[in-house]
Design brief:
Substrate Binding Domain Of Dnak, Chain:A, Domain 2; 18 helices; Rossmann fold; binds FE4-S3 cluster; alpha/beta; 16 strands; binds iron/sulfur cluster; six-stranded parallel sheet; 3 domains; 10% strand; 45% helix
Length: 559
């Protein structure tokens, strides 16, 4: 069995994982994921035909978002879960095909399901997992060895952007928010990757639209999160531990944390955040719980050691999971689209109901409390509402020269040593430079004491990767307040770290807003062909991060 995956920054040799994922994804799961993406492309093609006939299959649209989300880096490693998603994909696709056929025959007397590609008609013979894996191996990224490399690159760039949108869309859906335009675009974009008639220019146009849809998806999630839990408030998040048992929550799904906090109230169990759940420390709705304790540990790739030392149950709400050690595998609970074979999984909520976290609570009560890793606090809660409340002071500080430049350093963290670059940049920026960040990239520098300037911390942490939207809002409002017509004229530099597909959509979102001169690191994506990379460089002045010293000099000079 072989595989090919190059969707994340840690792909082997910055070329592609071919035997097993650096992330721990087996070839078997990689093939099942490829098959799922292929099938939802077929489903999406039918979704487009259905929309032309005035039919919208809402549940199928939601399914496409969930299926794509399941395939993002470090979310789901469980082959059994993919088998279930594959069966659902085939059933939903065929049900939609029947509706399209019926509507079409009635209206025009022809069969709109004729001439469909294999991905819209293939059904497994029922020979089990091997058959699915075999088919997945045949339909993956390199299925057509003769495909033009720029077309392949653009199709994959579009697919990964859509995966990022799908993740944010799923989080918003869980909070009861959806944007029909974004749901339709997920299908339109996927279907476009099947269209041999689309040349590089047409695909580039779709990639740009994908970025614009990414802005909408992030805006929706921002409204969903703040609508449900209030605007984040500047807060000093505790890093130490409290006496007594605890549960650690990681990932991105705030509703899981919300329900867990409710179900642990008065039970003598503290709830801690980890990784991308750190920003929850700033939401008023969570802070009102006296048993909501501090943040434990750092970013996702350090979790094996941290989870071991935490000692209690861990709830992994989405990415990023790393191969769990046996020492804590039985207390690592996945939920939502996260999955690891052999780890207990908390099922989805029934309509109108809540998830049942009682198993975690009972487990926590049986286990010792967490071992302390560190002490102190870090500032969080500097999302758009908090920053804009101080817009007048900030603009005045810029005019006085007290704040000379903002540096957007959001994105993802990762294992590679080369990411020390971001620590070095953060540490060495002049005292009149303020870092705007979001996503787990901040763990490379958010525990450095960089002090304050003009009464605000020099690291303004807007929240999770999806809260990069907040940084965009801040830039737009600053431009307005300073009477600047183009965001590129603001004293803002971009030094973005990427790892997985949610950072891909953040990047595309920034490009769609016309942001130029973004530095991206620690490497450019392997899925960008030289031709596509050249277009991005020429049109947007996108560049790879370089040596920290040289980049610092360029940033200080306004580049
Ligand atoms: Fe490799 Fe990244 Fe794909 Fe995992 S997600 S298989 S590390 S490219
Ligand atoms: Fe991090 Fe996975 Fe991307 Fe949400 S937790 S930013 S990598």
């Amino acid at each position: 069995m072989s595989m090919f995956c190059y969707q994340c920054q840690e792909t082997a040799r910055n070329e592609g994982c071919t035997v097993k994922g650096v992330c721990g994804k087996t070839a078997e799961v990689a093939c099942l994921q490829d098959l799922l993406v292929w099938l939802v492309k077929g489903l999406s093609l039918l979704g487009g035909r259905a929309r032309e006939l005035g039919i919208r299959d809402h549940d199928a649209e939601v399914f496409v978002a969930r299926a794509l989300f399941a395939t993002i880096t470090n979310a789901n490693f469980d082959p059994g879960r993919f088998e279930a998603l594959l069966a659902e994909a085939v059933d939903r696709r065929d049900a939609l095909c029947e509706r399209v056929r019926a509507a079409c025959a009635g209206g025009r007397g022809k069969d709109c399901c004729e001439g469909l590609p294999d991905c819209a008609t293939w059904r497994p013979a029922g020979d089990g997992r091997d058959e699915l894996v075999g088919k997945g191996a045949a339909v993956g990224i390199l299925a057509d060895p003769d495909l033009d490399e720029d077309i392949r690159s653009l199709r994959e760039l579009l697919t990964y952007g859509l995966k990022g949108i799908a993740a944010y869309t799923d989080h918003a859906l869980i909070l009861g928010q959806e944007n029909p335009e974004v749901l339709a675009f997920l299908q339109e974009g996927l279907a476009a990757t099947l269209d041999d008639g689309l040349d590089a220019a047409a695909l580039t146009g779709l990639v740009e639209r994908c970025g614009a849809m990414g802005v909408k998806a992030m805006a929706l999630l921002d409204a969903a999160n703040t609508g449900a839990y209030g605007h984040p408030e500047p807060t000093e998040a505790e890093l130490g531990v409290r006496p007594g048992p605890g549960i650690l929550v990681s990932g991105h799904d705030l509703k899981d944390l919300d329900e867990l906090l409710e179900q642990t109230a008065g039970r003598g169990v503290n709830v801690y955040t980890h990784g991308e759940m750190l920003p929850a420390q700033a939401y008023p709705a969570f802070r009102r719980h006296p048993h909501f304790a501090g943040n434990y540990g750092g970013s996702w790739w350090r979790q094996a050691e941290e989870f071991e030392r935490f000692g209690g149950p861990i709830l992994m709400t989405t990415n990023c999971i790393v191969t769990p050690r046996d020492s804590y595998k039985d207390r690592l609970y996945t939920t939502g689209l996260a999955g690891w074979p052999g780890c207990p999984h908390v099922p989805d909520r029934a309509p109108g109901g809540a998830k049942d976290f009682s198993a975690l609570v009972e487990k926590a009560l049986d286990l010792p409390g967490p071992e302390e890793l560190e002490t102190g606090t870090i500032p969080v809660g500097w999302a758009h509402d908090a920053v804009l409340a101080r817009a007048g002071d900030i603009v005045a500080a810029i005019r006085r020269g007290e704040i000379r430049r903002f540096v957007v350093m959001g994105g993802c963290d990762g294992r590679h040593r080369s990411r020390e670059y971001f620590t070095q940049v953060a540490r060495s920026l002049p005292a009149d430079h303020v870092i705007l960040t979001a996503g787990c990239a901040k763990y490379r520098y958010n525990k450095l004491d960089l002090g304050t300037v003009a009464g605000i911390p020099r690291i303004l942490d807007a929240g999770q990767c999806n809260d990069s939207y907040s940084l965009v809002v801040v830039a737009m409002k600053l431009a307005e307040a300073m009477g600047v017509g183009d965001v590129n004229e603001l004293p803002i530099s971009y030094d973005i770290a990427w790892y997985e597909q949610k950072a891909v959509i953040v990047l595309l979102a920034l490009l769609s807003l016309g942001v130029r001169n973004i530095r991206l690191g620690p490497t450019l994506p392997a899925f960008l062909s030289p031709g596509v990379a050249k277009v991005l460089v020429e049109r947007f002045a996108l560049k790879p991060t370089g040596e920290a010293e040289a980049d610092l000099a360029a940033i200080a000079a306004g580049a």
